[in-house]
Specification:
The complex is a heterodimer of chains A (424) and B (223). In chain A, β8 and β9 form a beta hairpin. Chain A starts with a helix and ends with a strand. In chain A, α1 runs antiparallel to α3 and α9 packs antiparallel against α10. Chain A is built from ten helices and eleven strands. Chain A has 424 residues and is an alpha+beta fold. The longest helix of chain A is centred in the N-terminal third of the chain and has 53 residues. Chain B has 223 residues and is α/β, with parallel strands linked by helices. Chain B folds into two domains: 118 residues, 3-Layer(aba) Sandwich (Rossmann fold), CATH 3.40.50; 96 residues, Arc Repressor Mutant, subunit A. Chain B is 42% helix and 24% strand. Chain B has a five-stranded parallel β-sheet, with helices on both faces. In chain B, β9 and β10 form a beta hairpin. Classes of the chains: A alpha+beta (424), B alpha/beta (223). At the A-B interface, α5, α6 and α8 of A face α1 and α7 of B.
Chain lengths: 424, 223
């Protein structure tokens, strides 16, 4: 929903309520005013009739063109005592002139002549049709409402588009902004204080962000260099020791230490790779043929598969091409492959790789127990503590999938097969 | 054989220098780009080991300098920057090999031997270890005067060990190195060890003075 739509919707809703209330009030006031006028007129007429009657003058004829009608009867003392002496009511009356029933204001008054006889005078005067009035008011208010809303839409669309122009320019700039590439400087001149503040704040933030990003990038590169060198030194010193005369037992110990160092170096590389992915340091993408990538990986890792005696089968349907960074695509496939080999059975293990147009799936035999779906992609999640596992392979897979909006799912079937499937 | 080691990290410099000296190379060291340039201007080396990240610039500058001066030194880049761009740039500028840190010393020595041998096209090509002589051009191995009849894989394994003599070779690294390029049923882990066993038997039978020793199940060593 755009800002304009939202404003128009809200204003329309508020106006609807306000105008409805207003029309009800307007109707009530109007009605009271009219009744008041009618009552005044009817009072006057009644007074006239009573005065004439008491004075013994001729009463006005019923059919006198005023639409007023009256009716004078003698009533008993009993009736006079039990009825109010003055009452106004709204009734439907048959108007002889018009030959139809119309709403009328009726005044009933009870009075006594000099000889003590009670009389009741009923005067009726036609009044307004309430329904008609209500309808008229409703129509006009609805008309007013539509007119106002239409005006608001037009004015809003125009005013917002004009006065919000700096905001839209800023949004466009933010949309183009990419921390990895150089984005042109923000050019958004405006006299509105709020927008000027917004411009300055966003510029300041993006600059700060850029600096932090650069720092982070440099830190990652430096950390990689700084850590690999001491590891290399330790490793080489131990190797030199190995080349001198030593007992086999000593050599065994040193060799184990070298292996630990290699593991450390691998861990360091994986961690740095992971943070590079998270920092979006692999921005360029190109079409990658997943089937040939899987085949290439199989060739590169066949020593590992052979060592674990795992038989590998690839089934590819067509040549799916995914738009990815080539290094990340390679890392994705390699990590899934390594994972499937390392966590395979020690004897008679199998790995089935399926490459479909929208899915790649690695199914391997392994421990007869499902992994924890919630945590299998966590960093340093380890099941069974395999020697060659860094605990980061699947975290890297997940990070790459998240980067490209791919889904990765782990499933386990009862025959002890673990499947990791990546889908577009 | 004279080697120039360009490396700014003192500890690594020391360990590599000592290891090279044990292999009877003459080693000179430089810890900056400028120092390295002065040395190559003044002396000739058989091989230069070059770190890319130096305090006063990139090692690639030295490569450019060598190229401009039309020097024929063999160069092996040793770098912790495990990036493909550097590797490509280095090899394009005329480096002969690229070895990412951390590396095995055995690997470093093998690479040095190999680039030096390539550099001496005209010279003696045969590798001699004790009474064992290998002619890499003809893929022929002799023990004394007797020609040893080796299979292709057996020859590959022997050549790999001879280039790393005296150093421990991890079994995984050996398998990786002599693995063929095509997927072949014979290319299995077990197959390589069977070949290694045959090779040892043939060497002993021919009375070779070298022996491939197993070290504790971690690897092997040619002595």
């Amino acid at each position: 929903m755009t800002l304009t739509t939202r404003i128009i919707r809200r204003v329309s809703a508020i106006l609807f309520v306000v105008l409805t209330l207003w029309s009800v009030l307007f109707y009530a006031v109007m009605e009271e005013e009219i009744i008041d006028e009618v009552d005044d007129a009817i009072d006057l007429y009644t007074e006239n009739v009573i005065t004439r009657y008491l004075a013994g003058k001729e009463l006005p004829s019923v059919d006198n063109g005023t639409n007023n009608s009256y009716h004078l009867v003698e009533v008993t003392d009993e009736y006079a005592r039990t009825h109010p002496h003055l009452s106004y009511t709204d009734e439907m009356r048959y108007i002889a002139d018009k030959k139809e029933t119309e709403p009328a204001r009726v005044l009933k008054t009870i009075f006594r002549t000099e000889n003590g006889q009670w009389h009741e005078l009923t005067v009726a005067t036609p009044t307004i049709e309430k329904r008609d009035l209500m309808e008229a008011v409703a129509y006009w208010v609805l008309g007013l409402y539509l007119a106002v809303v239409l005006t608001i839409i037009v004015v809003n669309a125009w005013v917002i588009r004009r006065s919000m122009r700096p905001l839209y320019r800023l949004l466009g700039w933010l949309d183009r902004y990419n921390i990895n590439e150089h984005t042109e400087a923000l050019e958004n001149p405006t006299k509105v204080t709020e927008f000027r503040t917004l411009n300055e704040t966003i510029q300041r933030f993006s600059q700060r962000n850029q600096e932090l990003f650069e720092q982070q990038k440099r830190f990652i590169g430096d950390a990689s260099h700084e850590l690999q060198t001491p590891i290399a030194i330790c490793q080489n010193r131990l190797e030199m020791l190995c080349d001198s005369d030593m007992t086999e037992e000593q050599m065994g110990e040193i060799f184990k230490t070298i292996q630990t160092l290699e593991h450390m170096s691998e861990l360091n590389r994986s961690l740095l790779f992971l943070s590079k992915i998270d920092n979006g340091q692999f921005p360029d993408t190109m079409p990658v043929d997943m089937a040939s990538l899987a085949q290439q990986t199989q060739v590169e890792y066949r020593r590992m598969a052979s060592e674990k005696r795992v038989s590998v089968a690839i089934r590819a349907e067509g040549h799916p091409v995914w738009q990815m960074n080539p290094a990340l695509a390679k890392a994705l496939v390699q990590n899934l492959y390594r994972n499937a080999i390392i966590h395979n059975l020690d004897e008679g293990g199998e790995l089935h790789i399926y490459i479909g147009i929208e899915e790649i799936a690695f199914t391997n035999t392994g421990a007869p127990m499902a992994l924890d779906k919630e945590h299998v992609f966590d960093r340093f999640y380890k099941s069974g503590g395999k020697e060659r596992s860094t605990g980061l392979g699947l975290a890297i897979v997940k990070a790459i999938c998240d980067l490209y909006g791919l889904t990765v799912e782990y499933t386990y079937d009862e025959e002890g097969r673990h499947t990791f499937a990546v889908r577009i | 054989m004279k080697i120039l080691l360009v490396e700014d990290e003192p500890a690594l410099q020391e360990v590599v220098r000592r290891s090279l000296e044990k292999e009877r190379y003459v080693v000179e060291v430089a810890d900056t780009c400028i120092a390295a340039m002065r040395k190559v201007n003044a002396y000739a080396y058989d091989c230069i080991l070059l770190d890319i990240m130096l305090p006063d610039g990139s090692g690639l500058q030295l490569l450019e300098h060598l190229k401009k001066m039309q020097k024929q030194e063999s160069v092996i880049i040793i770098s912790a920057k495990d990036s493909l761009d550097d590797k490509v740039a280095g090899l394009e500028l005329g480096a002969d090999d690229y070895l990412p840190k951390p590396f095995h010393l055995a690997e470093l020595h093998a690479r040095i031997r190999s680039v030096i041998r390539r550099g001496q096209r005209s010279g003696e090509m045969e590798i001699v270890v004790g009474n064992l002589t290998i002619d890499p051009d003809k893929h022929r191995v002799r023990v004394g005067e007797e020609v040893l009849d080796l299979g292709r894989k057996e020859y590959d394994i022997l050549l790999y060990f001879v280039n790393r003599r005296g150093h421990l070779v991890k079994k995984e690294v050996l398998a990786e190195a002599v693995w063929g390029d095509d997927i072949d049923q014979a290319d299995s882990f077990d197959f390589i060890y069977a070949q290694l066993k045959n090779l040892r038997r043939k060497l002993t039978a021919a009375g070779a003075e070298v022996e491939i020793k197993t070290v504790y199940g971690f690897g092997y060593k040619l002595i």
